[in-house]
User: Which sequence fits this backbone?
């Protein structure tokens, strides 16, 4: 129906599919230190309370795993999660996907979930795009972005997944055309070395990267500028357009830091109004997850957005 939609949500991947360099992949690869590949072997994930708490926070708020891996009631504004969290869900062409794309059950269930997966298998799916069976994962699983996830954070995610109550529920397999599968092969790449945690001063940028703010709000195509937005994403109720998040653009101009934080925290009390055709039902951006982000983190993201330079050739984007 809207065959371009999935590419929007994985703009970085789409750019690579088109055979052009991915501008927003640049800062990430620069951050990776030149360490020999042997050092990439992750140490086994051990769990302590702080690590489990960090993992829960990442899974339930910043990384929003449940936006895709949980069933959601899209007939209602914001698409609240329904049923058991992380027990698997599929999306099809009504969301612009080239087939049926299924984010599997990742609860601790041994048969249908990740109960028997090794830490290494989970880390590989998360950051390198390889499924347990060795297949290349469809890149709406945000592994291209999560190459930037620090070792510490990736381990915390794995530790938390072990604690997610088991749900014995099978997920159908992803079914995409062979030509699409062939196109995505190059996207799954091993990490070249350890990924260090960001400096305190880079927290906002790091969160805007791993929270996919930069990806979704980044525009599309080889000339896309960071945070220029403007991309329509298909939903069953019609497209939702991603706004730009530049300091002087329509959203952020005049929006103070407190008001910015309030837009997120307000989602803790959103009433479940019905979704309507042609209305922005807020089904694309995972607001319900981001509402749980720590205020400090939202503030860091805001300050990072304020520091993003105006794009070159601003005149070509009159809205910004
Ligand atoms: C934007 C949607 C989306 C988000 C967010 C997301 N995933 Fe996924 N994930 C998918 C899809 C779709 C697949 C299956 C891809 C395929 O079948 O090719 C997948 C696959 C996986 C797999 C591999 C399963 C297998 O069968 O090999 C694991 C593990 C996984 N996700 C874990 C996570 C975790 C942990 C998070 C949060 C930190 C997360 N995902 C967030 C969409 C998502
Ligand atoms: C999956 C894509 C996606 C992701 C990820 C995403 N956004 Fe959005 N965002 C959208 C879309 C679509 C809209 C417009 C519809 C809406 O308001 O939900 C939007 C709207 C917004 C708005 C405007 C809200 C308003 O009231 O006008 C802000 C601010 C925003 N996003 C910030 C962020 C931040 C910060 C992050 C990362 C923590 C983020 N977005 C991640 C897709 C996304």
Assistant:
């Amino acid at each position: 129906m809207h065959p371009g939609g999935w590419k929007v949500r994985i703009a970085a991947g789409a750019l690579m599919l088109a055979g052009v360099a991915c501008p927003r992949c640049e800062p990430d690869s620069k951050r990776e230190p030149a360490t020999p590949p042997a050092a990439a072997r992750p140490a086994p994930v051990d769990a302590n309370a702080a690590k489990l708490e960090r993992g829960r926070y990442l899974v339930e708020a910043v990384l929003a795993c449940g936006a895709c891996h949980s069933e959601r009631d899209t007939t209602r504004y914001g698409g609240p999660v329904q049923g058991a969290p992380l027990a698997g869900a599929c999306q099809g062409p009504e969301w612009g996907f080239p087939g049926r794309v299924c984010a599997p059950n990742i609860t601790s269930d041994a048969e249908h979930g990740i109960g028997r997966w090794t830490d290494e298998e989970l880390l590989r799916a998360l950051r390198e795009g390889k499924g347990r069976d060795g297949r290349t994962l469809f890149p709406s699983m945000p592994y291209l972005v999560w190459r930037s996830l620090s070792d510490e954070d990736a381990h915390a995610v794995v530790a938390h997944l072990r604690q997610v109550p088991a749900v014995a529920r099978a997920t159908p397999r992803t079914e995409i055309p062979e030509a699409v599968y062939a196109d995505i092969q190059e996207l799954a790449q091993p990490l070249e070395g350890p990924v260090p945690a960001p400096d305190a001063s880079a927290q906002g940028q790091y969160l805007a990267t791993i929270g996919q703010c930069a990806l979704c709000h980044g525009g599309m195509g080889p000339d896309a500028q960071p945070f220029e937005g403007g991309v329509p994403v298909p939903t069953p109720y019609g497209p939702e357009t991603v706004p730009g998040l530049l300091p002087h653009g329509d959203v952020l101009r005049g929006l103070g830091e407190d008001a910015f934080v309030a837009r997120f925290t307000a989602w803790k009390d959103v009433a479940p109004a019905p979704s309507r055709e042609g209305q922005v039902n807020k089904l694309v951006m995972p607001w319900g997850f981001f509402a749980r982000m720590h205020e400090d983190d939202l503030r860091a993201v805001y300050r990072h957005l304020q520091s993003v330079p105006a794009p070159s050739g601003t005149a070509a984007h009159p809205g910004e």
User: Anything to note?
Assistant: Residues 49-62 form the longest helix (14 residues). Confidence is low (pLDDT under 50) at residues 11-40, 315-320.
